[in-house]
Design a protein that fits this description.
- This protein is of the alpha/beta class and 209 residues long.
- It has six helices and 13 strands.
- Strands 1, 4, 5, 6, 7, 8, 9, 10 and 11 form a nine-stranded mixed sheet that branches.
- The structure holds 1-O-pyrophosphono-5-O-phosphono-alpha-D-ribofuranose and uracil.
- The site of 1-O-pyrophosphono-5-O-phosphono-alpha-D-ribofuranose has 24 residues, from strand 4, strand 6, strand 9, helix 4 and helix 6.
- The site of uracil (URA) has 10 residues, from helix 6.
Length: 209
């Protein structure tokens, strides 16, 4: 597996345990996903470039640093990716948010695109594609391809839980994409669900089951 960053901070791992728990209700599930997204965003943005800045403190001038005007875009894969957006925007509130609507056909497990609305200045932006689950990888690859075709400046993928199969699929289709995950699980089951995973992320976020 290439290009995989497992964010194993104790707070992320602790919260992920309760995200997985079948007894965690929709409200707590949403709040935990939101918190973990913030913690993950802290790591995913670690390489943002800085520039010199001079600030006047109450005592003296300080030569310090600020982020060097990097233009970020956050792209949730609908629906479940929506659960991670606010947690990221808490750290980078000026990031633009694009939306890509995809669902997995339950029979074929292939992604079906039904919506796409992205910032106009895609060529000048660095994107973080977000989705809690990287299962077969079909949805993530389809979303990345949409951004690549529109010449996004750079793209990272951020997921809570990945199956080895999904990582392999992204590595094969998009060898330059860095993948950030909280955990790599064992495998996919016969229905394309991650084992042990957390079940259906969209249903658990939005209470649709
Ligand atoms: C889930 C999940 C991913 C996708 C992952 O979405 O949120 O988008 O499945 O599976 P893949 O890696 O095999 O493509 P789903 O299709 O259930 O849609 P939803 O978010 O609208 O519930
Ligand atoms: N989508 C989910 O929501 N969960 C999985 O385990 C796989 C795909």
């Amino acid at each position: 597996m290439k290009n995989v960053h497992v964010l194993d901070h104790p707070l992320i791992q602790h919260k992920l345990t309760f995200i997985r728990d079948v007894n965690t209700g929709n409200k707590d599930f949403r709040e935990l996903v939101d918190e973990v997204a913030t913690l993950m965003a802290y790591e995913v943005t670690r390489d943002l470039p800085l520039e010199e800045y001079v600030v006047q403190t109450p005592v003296a001038k300080a030569r310090t640093k600020v982020i060097a005007g990097k233009k970020l875009g956050v792209v949730p894969i609908l629906r479940a990716g929506l659960g991670m957006v606010d947690g990221i925007l808490r750290l980078v509130p000026h990031a633009r948010v694009g939306h890509i609507g995809l669902y997995r056909d339950p029979e074929t497990l292939s992604p079906v695109t039904y919506y796409s609305k992205l910032p106009s200045d895609i060529e000048d932006r660095d994107f973080i594609v977000v989705d809690p689950m990287l299962a077969t990888g079909g949805s993530a690859v389809a979303a990345i391809r949409i951004l690549q075709k529109l010449s996004a400046r750079s793209i990272k993928l951020m997921c809570l839980i990945a199956a080895p199969e999904g990582i392999e699929a992204v590595n094969q289709a998009c060898p330059d994409i860095e993948i950030y995950v909280a955990h790599v699980d064992q495998k996919l089951n016969d229905h394309g669900y991650i084992v042990p995973g957390l079940g259906d992320a969209g249903d658990r976020l939005f209470g649709t089951k």
